[in-house]
Amino acid sequence: MKLKFIYLLSLFFVLNSCKNENEKRLVENKKDAKKKELIFSKIDKGWNFNAIPLNETSEAYTTTWPAWRDFMTELSYRPQKTIGAFQKRATTLSRKVIALNTSIPTDFDKPQIKSRISALITKVRMLDLYIHLDDIPSEKVLALIPEINMELMSLQNQMDKIVQKSKIPLEEGESELLKMLDTTRAIPNTPQLLENPNKPRIE
Question: With a threshold of 0.85, does the pTM exceed it?
């Protein structure tokens, strides 16, 4: 009889502790859901990218530079309903921005364009990293969006500057001067041993 009583008592404690654990888990799940909902609403409000080309150059290259067109199109899409949708969009943006660096048109294959693309890649990949963390730092995500917009604006302005500069006709003799300044055409600077004219000759 005593043994049955101990068994029933222990069973009661086990069931009671399981019930308490379930209640705790439910409370934690509710808290987590509220937190995610708050993060989602914050990110949803701040997810505003400038996907419209700033100038004629930027717009013109959406037809001739596929990677540029794809990236700008991807920026214009707005994720909806869940934080998972924002995470997927950030991953796609990260992939599309990297493609910019691998297919730069010859007109823009210049250090000033490459450096701006690299800065843009860094910001977009940081966004992708932060939004995939278990505890999403919404402040950092929201701070990156205007920074990405700034990098995007800087890149488009630089693209336009290069195109406008190429339209300016060269003055007479300027093309020859540019050729002379081109370091890739220069004679290699190899040290040559000069022969000493006073050195005795062996005949």
Answer: no
